[in-house]
Amino acid sequence: MISPRQLASTVILFLIGSSSLFLLGGNADRDAWMSVLVGALAGLLLLSCITLQIQKLEPDRNLIEIFKLYFGRTIGFVFGFIYVIYYSYKCIRNVREFADLSIMFLLPDTPLSMVILIICFISGYAVLGGPSILFRMVEVLLPILITIYIVLFVLLLSAGLIDLGRLMPIFEHGFKPVWAAAIPEIISFPYGEMVLFLMFWRYIAADNYEVVMRITIKGYVFAGSFITLMNIITIASLGQFASWSVVPLLLATTFVELGDSLERIDPLVSLLLFSAVYVKLTAYYLGASIAFSYLFRISLRIAAIPIGIGIYCGSFWFKSYMHQVNVGFERNLKFHFPIFQIVIPIVLLLVMLLRKKVRSKSNSASSTKSVQVEATNEARKESVDVQEAISRQ
């Protein structure tokens, strides 16, 4: 089982994930941080009103079981398999991201196929241990990574790179660009990705589901605030160059020079990026494997094998790192991911509420009918007693 503290840690690190690689909401220019804030608030609405409510109605089931229960075996299987593909594709994107960054910054002479294979093996090893292993690992990693982030921010501040004047003027072009950059792109990445936790919430060791909701929302709010702060620091450090950089945070830290003793802190940024991306891709790998095991009624260890093979092979579909980024931001975030994160969950919740309402009405009708039958039987009994008393007289 997973403790509430482990849940909060995983929500935080999962949402931060690869979001530190990019300037989210870059189309809003210096107001990008406002787009992140708007996206976070919209994502919180989606999480609290849709995603968490689905789990609240069926706290002891995961998403695949819920699909089968409310849509029937055949349609439920189809929807479940679609989510296996969705989770696997998200993992593929993160694996390719991890591999390309490793080759760019650490292993320039290593073949891409070998890097991807190593990533899949390391991630697969964690998946074989089940949800408790992943969540326990994240609980240990989170304080270390947050500490490194704080050190980076202090170094940027000490080096005099942060100038809040680069954030001004706010709403220079009005609110429309801020909204356009936030909806639906920033909801889709990273906040809408919380739909993955419909595979994990049932494993939380809590007295009641209200604890799960409260811990999840607290973790979400912390992560949303942290991502917004990262965007502010990135823009305040790089200004207009933030939206042009491949990895803005890495570019910002290259300007840090404190005397002759501290000039390069790139390894710290690389550690942050690789650790966070690894957690995210492993979470998706695990979610896809659990979904696959429930669909085909096999063990998690067996399900992880075909999912891992599919992830490895699918990682070669992208031609390059920029191709992967362009596909994600130009197509997936706008047209594909909202279907899995917003549309299908809303439809599922409506079906669940309608089915619950019908069941409650049928239960109340049957209970009313049983009461009426009992009343009729009592009336008949009284009538028989009266007739017997009259006949005796």
TrEMBL record:
Chain segments annotated as coiled-coil in the UniProt record: none
Membrane topology annotation: Multi-pass membrane protein
Top-level taxon: Bacteria
Region entry Disordered, spans: 361-393
Keyword hit for Membrane: yes
Cellular compartments annotated: Membrane
GO (cellular component) term, any one: membrane
Keyword Transport: yes
GO biological process: spore germination
Alphabetical keyword list: Germination, Membrane, Transmembrane, Transmembrane helix, Transport
Bias (Low complexity): 361-370
Transmembrane feature ranges: 7-26, 32-54, 66-89, 101-128, 140-162, 182-201, 221-247, 267-286, 298-318, 338-354
Family from the record: Belongs to the amino acid-polyamine-organocation (APC) superfamily. Spore germination protein (SGP) (TC 2.A.3.9) family.
PANTHER family tied to this protein: SPORE GERMINATION PROTEIN A2
Protein name from the UniProt record: Spore germination protein KB
